[in-house]
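queue> pop job 88
queue> type: inverse folding (structure -> sequence)
queue> payload:
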């Protein structure tokens, strides 16, 4: 298991002043990785680490002799796939060096020459994502949605045995800040005889965490649960946009397709599993009567530490609110601790038939939802399938999303005596289908 060391010490501060501000997402204990270039330039993207409101150009620090090793050198590339494939020993060494360089008393004079102002940088998708798999690991989301279709029996009989997922599309994954175009597709109202082709009218977000895979496995050789965490590089925020009306008509018998593959948005910074070490928790406690996971999805140590205590929040900023200078209106705030299946169970299950994973593959956790309306991770749940309106400031109402609405997701960890670890933001505004 990732262990605590002096890089997690909550008392550490950085010589970058903004990293020490209360509420900063990127203090010295976080050190999330992303790829960036100077905004408006046509230069190559390169690997960086967020510190306060600055980015350390890791490859530049390597060239200057401030950082050593294969992991730092790999950050000179325009994606983090090589870094992800190197494995935990390399990641731990890089984190240790970054912490020493950037902490108070580190080499500020040299380090400063490798800093770029975050406000003057543009970010992109941090890896070449070969495959994208979207899970369905929140039992509360599965139950809330299942109840709309099968009130008597919301959960299907496989749910408590199988970490359910479908294979998604990686080509349409975009970084936070990229607008999302309303999709068009086949829609069929409940009373219509035949479908028509039109712009989606029931556009929704799904509040998820994304998991970037580190070293993969050889085809035919599963990754056992006890080794799963060596294959997890880190986590980001993921908005798995969903067209509910397209989905209703197409999803049987083979599952989601055009309702999902038009766009997914991720936050630019990957918070590493090392940074999350202080926030490991016991896995979700299954209620009495639920079956135990099959042996390949269970170990004693995983039961004690397979969970992650991460707060998530989803908010919407309408066009009118933006013009009024309002803050995004929070709709749901779930916690990742309540997931029925852990990140590690998802990974072990995915490879359990021998399916090979590769560095830079992305998993979606599935919509993270709690049991109460203020913890719902999709608007489908918040508006009860369109039956209930959601009130916004300025007398606006919504069921599903409208053009001009901007969805803003945030995630962070905090706790007594621990440094806050933030994920930054995942935001995207909806533009018209026309
Ligand atoms: Ca999803």
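queue> result:
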């Amino acid at each position: 298991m990732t262990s605590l060391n002096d890089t997690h010490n909550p008392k550490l501060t950085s010589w970058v002043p903004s990293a020490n501000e209360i509420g900063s997402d990127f203090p010295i204990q976080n050190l999330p990785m992303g790829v960036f270039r100077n905004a408006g330039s046509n230069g190559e993207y390169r690997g960086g680490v967020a510190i306060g409101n600055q980015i350390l150009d890791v490859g530049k620090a390597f060239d200057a002799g401030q950082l050593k090793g294969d992991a730092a050198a790999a950050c000179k590339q325009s994606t983090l796939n090589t870094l992800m494939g190197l494995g935990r020993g390399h990641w731990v060494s890089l984190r240790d060096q970054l912490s020493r360089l950037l902490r108070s008393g580190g080499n500020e004079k040299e380090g400063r020459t490798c800093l770029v102002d975050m406000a003057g940088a543009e970010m992109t998708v941090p890896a070449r994502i070969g495959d994208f798999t979207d899970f369905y690991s929140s039992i509360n989301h599965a139950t809330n949605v299942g109840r709309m279709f099968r009130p008597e029996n919301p959960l299907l009989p496989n749910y408590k045995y199988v970490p359910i997922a479908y294979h998604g599309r990686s080509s349409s994954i975009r970084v936070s800040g990229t607008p999302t175009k309303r999709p068009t597709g086949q829609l069929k109202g409940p009373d219509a005889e035949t479908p028509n082709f039109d712009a989606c009218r029931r556009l929704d977000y799904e509040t998820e965490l994304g998991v970037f895979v580190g070293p993969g496995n050889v085809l035919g050789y599963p990754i056992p649960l006890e080794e799963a965490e060596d294959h997890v590089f880190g986590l980001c925020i993921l908005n798995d946009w969903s067209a509910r009306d397209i989905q209703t008509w197409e999803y049987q018998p083979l599952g989601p397709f055009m309702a999902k593959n038009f766009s997914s948005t991720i936050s630019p910074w990957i918070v590493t599993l090392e940074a999350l070490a202080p926030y490991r928790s016991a896995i979700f406690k299954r209620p009495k009567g639920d079956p135990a996971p099959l042996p390949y999805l269970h170990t004693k140590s995983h039961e004690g530490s397979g969970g992650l205590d991460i707060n998530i929040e989803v908010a919407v900023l309408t066009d009118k609110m933006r013009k009024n200078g309002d803050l995004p209106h929070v709709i749901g705030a779930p916690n990742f601790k309540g997931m029925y299946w852990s990140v590690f169970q998802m990974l072990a299950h995915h490879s359990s038939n021998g399916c090979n994973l590769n560095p830079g593959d992305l998993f979606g956790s599935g919509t993270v939802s709690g049991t109460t309306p203020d913890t719902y991770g999709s608007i489908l749940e918040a508006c009860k399938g369109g039956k209930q309106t959601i009130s916004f400031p300025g007398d606006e109402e919504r069921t599903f999303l409208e053009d001009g609405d901007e969805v803003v997701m945030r995630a962070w960890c905090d706790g007594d005596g621990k440094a806050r670890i933030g994920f930054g933001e995942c935001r995207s505004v909806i533009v018209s289908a026309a």
